[in-house]
Design a protein that fits this description.
Layout (H helix, E strand, L loop, with lengths): L20 E3 L2 E3 L3 E6 L12 H12 L4 E8 L11 E2 L5 H14 L3 E7 L13 E2 L13 E2 L2 H20 L4 E5 L5 H6 L14 H19 L3 E7 L10 H14 L4 E5 L18 H10 L4 E3 L6 H9 L5 E3 L1 H6 L3 H6 L17 H5 L15 H4 L12 E5 L3 H12 L3 E5 L8 H5 L8 H14 L3 E3 L6 H6 L4 E4 L3 E3 L12 E3 H5 L8 E6 L5 H11 L3 E6 L10 H13 L3 E3 L2 E7 L4 E6 L23 E5 L2 E4 L2 E3 L2 H5 L6 E3 L9 H12 L3
The structure holds flavin mononucleotide and iron/sulfur cluster.
């Protein structure tokens, strides 16, 4: 094992975070762990692959005391959404060996989480096992009630899975007791309506949990047995905080476990977005700590070290999970230890590329850390100097320009960045104006701070002309000039009553009367504009050609927007395709049926789409807001061919932040 560079006491007020903690037969080298999370780094057999090793090792190298692999399914009857590992397959043992050896090499501990996803499935893949035949509220699955033999089978499967983990050199296991998984289904009176010894009283509903714990403890011997509980199910009719505290007490009194890790949620997401308060589950951990005599871990939007240290100081927890904080910055602990907390890349809670990618059946990534999930290939890009130092001029200080400048500077280039605005951050600053989206600012603030720390010559309030750029004698010019509003195809010409979404979100100009927002991006800008118009007291209708608004946005973020839209009285019309705008009459003519309302066969000489005979839906509006943009590439035309000009970000194609940042990283790695 290599020497641990994380000496306690190195970080001033944060030093408490670096104190070791004894858990059962193991020692956490500090108080910061990475809680269980699925990575989708799997092969076709749902076994962890080499990318997974590189991924977890990077977090151990960065100083995390313990990393927990996401749910490993203990039995084939478990659904396996989000690329959950198959821990019922003996072939996982050598994969565990590779993971544990590599993590131990860097002084960390590693455990897999044992689980059975119960009814968390749409049921398409086969029969759904659960204690009782209670349909899952969110997923809609209708399970069949497990027989006693099934109950025994699954119970034994937990123990067998635990044995595989220990055989693979893992430091133990974490048992998922909450999160709506199988044990939670047995514990909850909502989903356990059994009449045998596993149902009925609180004690009887706890029986499955206790017997699983007994089997797993026997399987792991003196290795770690952690449990992950809910502070509350936060679901009507299910287990509330008091009920969970009783369960925690039973778990503690069993004497079988080494620590309790407190999360929350039964049906919904266990990953709070930026719209949720930081440290949202700390109060649950505090209550558990007051109730049981076991080390307690807290989790949930603990995004910065000061908050984490305060949680320890206040007695809320003995250790903290900073999970997405490590997805965003795997070297968080090392930076604390070295007094470089300003350099920590904060998780902004967007869930766009961690949970978001899992939902798209791709492996975990981070919206503004291009290396995450691709450590095997990219981890040395930032620390490897370029072959030759070059003079790089970046035009545009949005995410794409900032990331290009940052990575270029890290690689030793001499970088100048122009931005016409007074502040760095580009359109992200506009997007962050919407309630619940202000966390976006942290991403561009971090990029801006890093760019300055790395010595980039930042020139604000400067619209870079070709002469300005050429005066710097650049070897490479990177255009990250973004996009500007464009005239929608369905509007014949510009008009003061036709506005871009960004302008409306920025509060320019004042709106009144009826506003129709035509959302053709399926991202958040249309919803943000609708909210901004509603805030001005307008009567707002949001039109989208898709079956739902913002279909490309992660469910939790979309749900939050939808709740705000409904609360603001915004009318939402789905599957409604705008075909033309009658400016004089102030009416949008739409076809119901989404894209079916258009036919692309008939495009006239002006490029206007002609529509077939779909019944017209007229939407009257005093103002019309649109989401059309076009690249701002004028500078490209003005620079001579002799200059090496590259383009990145919205100037090429409007992206979300990750598209801009990841492309910028790859671009800056190429010269
Ligand atoms: C991509 C992703 C996958 C996750 N998978 C699991 C999982 O398999 N099991 C689990 O108990 N929690 C899972 N979680 C929840 C995390 O362990 C953690 O509780 C959550 O991210 C909140 O903590 P944070 O704000 O520090 O990220 C996952 C979280 C993320 C972001
Ligand atoms: S994608 Fe967003 S939520 Fe996920 S780790 Fe990165 S910053 Fe955090």
């Amino acid at each position: 094992m290599s020497a641990d560079p994380l000496a306690p006491g190195a970080a001033g007020n944060l030093s408490r975070l670096l104190e070791p903690l004894r858990l059962g037969g193991r020692t956490l080298r500090n108080r910061i762990i990475v809680t269980a999370h699925a990575t989708y780094n799997i092969d076709a057999e749902h076994l962890p692959n080499e990318d997974d090793v590189a991924y977890f090792v990077e977090r151990a190298r960065g100083g995390a005391a313990l990393v927990a692999m996401g749910t490993t399914a203990v039995h084939p009857s478990s659904p396996t959404p989000y690329g959950i590992y198959h821990n019922f397959d003996d072939r996982i043992v050598p994969r565990y060996e590779a993971l544990s050896a590599a993590v131990h090499e860097h002084g960390g501990l590693i455990v897999p989480q044992l689980g059975h996803m119960g009814a968390r499935t749409d049921g398409e893949a086969g029969p759904v096992w659960a204690p009782s035949q209670v349909s899952h509220h969110l997923w809609g699955s209708v399970p069949y009630a497990m027989s006693r033999a099934d109950v025994r089978t699954v119970m034994e499967a937990y123990a067998s899975a635990a044995k595989r983990a220990v055989r693979g050199g893992m430091d133990g296991v974490e048992l998922s007791v909450g999160h709506g998984q199988m044990i939670n289904l047995f514990l909850s009176p909502l989903t356990n309506q059994r009449e045998d010894e596993y149902g009925g009283s609180d004690e009887a509903r706890f029986r499955f949990c206790r017997e699983v714990l007994e089997g797993v403890r026997e399987a792991v011997g003196d290795a770690l047995l952690l449990v992950r509980v809910n502070g509350s199910d936060e679901a009507p009719g299910s287990l509330d905080q008091d009920a969970w505290l009783d369960i925690d007490q039973r778990i503690a009194e069993s004497g079988l476990v080494d620590a309790i890790n407190v999360s929350a949620n039964f049906y919904g997401s266990v990953i709070p977005t930026m719209a949720v308060a930081r440290g949202c589950y700390l109060h649950y951990a505090r209550a558990v700590k007051q109730r049981v005599d076991l080390p307690v871990g807290a989790v949930g939007r603990i995004t910065d070290p000061t908050m984490a240290a305060q949680a320890l100081e206040d007695g809320d927890a003995d250790f903290v999970g900073m999970t997405r904080a490590h997805i965003a910055d795997p070297h968080l602990v090392r930076k604390i230890a070295e007094g470089r907390t300003d350099e920590i890349r904060p998780c902004i809670g967007c869930i766009q590329m961690c949970q978001g990618e899992l939902g798209r059946h791709r492996n975990v990534k981070c919206v503004y850390n291009a290396v995450t999930g691709r450590e095997r290939f990219l981890r040395e890009v930032e620390t490897t100097p370029a072959a030759a130092r070059r003079r790089v001029v970046v035009v545009g200080g949005g995410p794409a320009g900032l990331e290009t400048a940052r990575v270029s500077a890290l690689r030793g280039h001499d970088v100048t960045l122009f931005d016409e605005r007074a502040e760095l951050g580009g359109v992200v600053r506009v997007a962050a104006r919407t309630d619940g989206r202000d966390g976006l600012i942290d991403a561009v603030d971090w990029l801006g701070n890093e760019v300055r720390r790395l010595g980039v010559d930042v020139r604000l309030r400067r619209t870079a002309e070709a002469a300005d750029v050429l005066a710097l004698k650049p070897d490479v010019v990177v255009l990250a000039t973004g996009a500007s509003e464009a005239l929608p195809l369905w509007a014949e010409r510009e008009d003061r009553r036709l506005l871009g979404a960004a302008d409306v979100v920025s509060g320019r100009p004042a709106l009144s009367g009826t506003v129709a927002v035509v959302d053709e991006t399926d991202r958040t800008s249309g919803m943000s504009a609708a909210l901004a118009a509603a805030e001005q007291g307008c009567s707002v209708v949001l039109l989208t050609a898709r079956p739902g608004p913002a279909e490309l946005v992660e469910r939790e973020v979309r749900d939050d927007f939808l709740q705000r839209l409904v609360a603001a009285g915004v009318e939402i019309r789905t599957s409604t395709q705008v075909r033309s705008w009658d400016r004089g009459a102030g009416v949008l003519h739409c076809g119901v049926g989404g894209l079916a309302a258009l036919t692309y066969r008939d495009v006239d000489d002006h490029g206007h789409v002609l529509v077939r005979d779909v019944p017209d839906l007229a939407v009257a509006a005093d103002f019309v807001v649109h989401t059309w943009t076009e690249p701002r590439a004028e500078l490209f035309e003005d620079l001579p061919d002799s200059v090496d000009v590259r383009a990145v970000g919205d100037v090429l194609n409007p992206h979300r932040i990750e598209g801009a940042v990841h492309a910028a990283f790859e671009l800056a790695a190429s010269f």
